[in-house]
Design brief:
The complex is a heterodimer.
Chain A (H helix, E strand, L loop, with lengths): L7 H15 L4 H18 L13 H27 L8 E6 L5 H13 L3 E7 L4 E6 L7 H18 L1
Helix pairs in contact in A: 1-2, 3-5, 4-5
Chain B lengths: L8 H27 L3 H6 L2 H23 L6 H30 L18 E2 L1
The chains are: A mainly alpha, B mainly alpha.
């Protein structure tokens, strides 16, 4: 089974992608999409990506909810900073955070979350020390950023992936 | 696109609101490129368009074509997913190159690398 389907989740994602692009659920497209999904999973074997092992599924939804709320909130906050930039310049700076995540997929998702949230930019991650250097646009509540990211994103990601 | 006039008012109004909101947020984000003073600050500005802007505009597109063609249209979600997944790559590239240059030039306000670490690039990555 593992030999024929090296990355089942990836194959499934590719099938969904194919069906979405073609906007049809006809049997022909499902078969074609499955063939493509399975064969592309074979191609990626040579790239040796880290296999994601999802531990729990309920945490994914709470994490997604948190991210949606935070994206909305930080969009408003960043807009306010930009519009006020002429009168009061943004109080931005770097924040160092110790990240305990080892799983590459979890780190990639954390990077997507932090980048999709305006106001935080992932600048550098040192894999040896596990220190993430983050640039924050509005340092209003300085140390809270590290705590916020650790509890709100890192902890659930750790539960899901490790 | 003359068939856009077929859009009934109950759908046209939310579509207009979403489009205006999305493009307005993207505009504010672009404005940030002028207004924010530091390079790292300017890194944040375009993410407004890449998060809320793209989501609102794609939602407007979904509603428009779902109403016009009378079926569910969901493939705009792919646009959102791909934009969200690919923006970190460019942003990290820009951030890292700026950080690298600032460290070489020893500019102020840029964090040093942690002490006792060699500058080998093998263990350090984005």
């Amino acid at each position: 089974m593992r030999y024929w389907f090296p990355y089942p989740l990836l194959s499934l994602a590719l099938l969904v992608l194919w069906l979405l692009v073609n906007q049809s659920f006809s049997p022909g497209q499902v078969i074609l999409g499955s063939i493509l999904g399975i064969s592309f999973a074979w191609v990626t074997v040579n790239l040796q990506p880290d296999k994601a092992k999802l531990k729990t599924f309920n945490r994914i939804f709470t994490l997604a909810g948190h991210v949606a709320v935070d994206v909305l909130r930080s969009n408003i906050a960043v807009m306010r900073v930009i519009l006020r930039a002429r009168t009061q310049p943004a109080n931005s700076g770097f924040v160092r955070i110790d990240i305990g995540l080892k799983d590459e997929n979890a780190l990639a998702i954390l990077a997507c979350i932090l980048t999709a949230t305006p106001g935080t930019a992932w600048v550098e991650f040192d894999r040896q020390t596990g220190v993430l250097l983050l640039h924050v646009l509005d340092l209003e509540n300085g140390d809270n950023w590290a705590k916020l990211i650790k509890t709100r994103y890192e902890a659930p990601l750790k539960e899901i992936f490790e | 696109m003359s068939h856009l006039t077929d859009l009934p008012a109950w759908a046209a109004i939310p579509v207009c609101i979403l489009l205006l909101l999305g493009s307005g947020i993207t505009l504010i984000g672009s404005l940030g490129l002028i207004r924010l003073k530091t390079f790292y600050g300017r890194l944040h500005a375009p993410t407004l368009g890449a998060s809320a802007g793209i989501i609102l505009i794609c939602l407007a597109s979904m509603i428009t074509f779902a109403v016009l063609q009378n079926r569910w249209i969901v493939h705009e979600i792919l646009i959102i997913v791909f934009v969200v997944v690919t923006t970190p790559v460019t942003l990290m590239l820009l951030g890292q190159s700026a950080l690298y240059r600032d460290r070489i030039e020893e500019n102020d306000g840029v964090p040093r690398k942690a002490a006792g670490q060699q500058t080998d690039t093998t263990g350090m990555d984005i």
